[in-house]
Each structure stands twice: as structure tokens, then as C-alpha cells.
Amino acid sequence: MLAPCPEPTTLPVAGAATCFGVRRVYCVGRNYVEHIREMKEGDERDPPFFFQKPSDSILREGSEVPYPPSTDDFQHEIELVVAIGRGGSNISADQSLEHVFGYAIGIDMTRRDRQREARERGLPWEIGKSFDRSAPCGPIHPAEKVGHIGSGAISLSVNGAVRQRGDLGQMIWNVAEIVANLSQQYTLVPGDLIFTGTPAGVGPVVPGDCMTGVIAGLGEISFKIGERSV
């Protein structure tokens, strides 16, 4: 007997009845200077580097984010998410925004203790970053309606208290540069998402906490931290 096919991962498109089918989830590491400094890692002039999360790590708004196993330091990272609507490889920076379908608010959830252990041992980051339900994300806002976002306030609050606050203009590598650089390493395909990095102020959450992420022009998203997974 064949195993049943898994349900496809999708995100709602703001103001539309259709959904955005998610193919791959790419994440940019260390893309805000103050975050590099608070983590005490990396050269501030390094080119962008990328890691991936599984597509089924995406969680729609309204879902609980379960506290994952194998960690005692579960942390939030608010990020602008870029949704690719037109594929290609070796895309130039001056044409890369033509490949962007829209934008969303996302949270890169991280098992920080496991990430640090992996880094210290020179191992891949998957255990700290690429676990189940680690990518809460809001609806995709089409660029044709909200424009291409290069600046504006970005923040995350936990239980009403602001933890992270910054501006998208503080990104070391902007959206056009990120898309161009990533397309030199992978062939981008419609359905790809890119989490673009987080400002300073990352910190831990515990079961029962409520996270609210805000990006100017994209509204806000909220997710509650659920009980520990087993």
C-alpha cells in the first residue's frame, strides 16, 4: 500500500480567496549589525549566508507554536518574509524585485541552546533551526498592493512588552540583494519563501506566552506558545 501524500503547505494571500503554495523556506543568517553584536558571532561585513527550514515548519496565524523538545532556551526572531512569484537563477540585483510576489511577517523560532552547541562544534544548524513548526508566518501581502518594502518599523512583543525593535532599512543586505545572491546558489521557483534576518533583542519564550509581530505596511501577527511537545 502506498503511503498517503502529505497535505501541501500553503499561506493565505491577503485580500484574496487563493493561497500561496510554499515550496522551500530559506533563511538569511545575521543580517542586522546589532543582532550580530548581541550574538557575538560573525564579521559584520560578511556576505549573506543561508540555511533552510522544511516547508511544513510553516505555521499559519491562529495556530499555537508548541514548545519543542530538546531545548530549554526557545527563542523568537521577528523577520520580513519575501515570497517568490517568478523563478530564475543568477538574477541581477536590479531585476530581482520583479521576481517577488509579496511580503509577510514571520518568526524564525530557534532552539538557541542547540544552535550554540552546533556552532561551537562546527556542525550544521538544523537541530537549532529546522525543527517541526518552527516558522510561524502571517498572510502574504502582494507587492502590487503594498509595494516593495525596503524600510519601515519592525518589532516583536511578548505579552505586550516590546522585545525587538528596529527598521528594515537596517538590514545589511536588502531584499533585492538577498534575492540576487540566493539565486546564484539555488534556482528560485514560485512558492519559495525567504526569511530575511532579525533585528536585535531576541530572547526566550515559555508556554503561555503570546508573541505579536508588527511590520509597517503589513499589519501584525500573533501566536501563542503552547505546551512542550513530547
UniProtKB/TrEMBL annotation:
Query: Carries keyword Hydrolase?
Result: yes
Q: Record's superkingdom? A: Bacteria
Keywords of this entry: Hydrolase, Metal-binding
Locate the Fumarylacetoacetase-like C-terminal domain: which residues?
25-223
Classification via Pfam families: FAA_hydrolase
Q: InterPro entries annotated for this entry?
A: Fumarylacetoacetase-like_C, Fumarylacetoacetase_C_sf
The record's annotation in SUPFAM superfamilies points to:
FAH (SSF56529)
Query: What range does the record give for the signal peptide?
Result: none
Q: Where are the transmembrane segments?
A: none
Q: Which GO terms describe its molecular function?
A: acetylpyruvate hydrolase activity; metal ion binding
This protein is called what? Fumarylacetoacetate hydrolase family protein
Which species is this record about? Answer: Bradyrhizobium uaiense
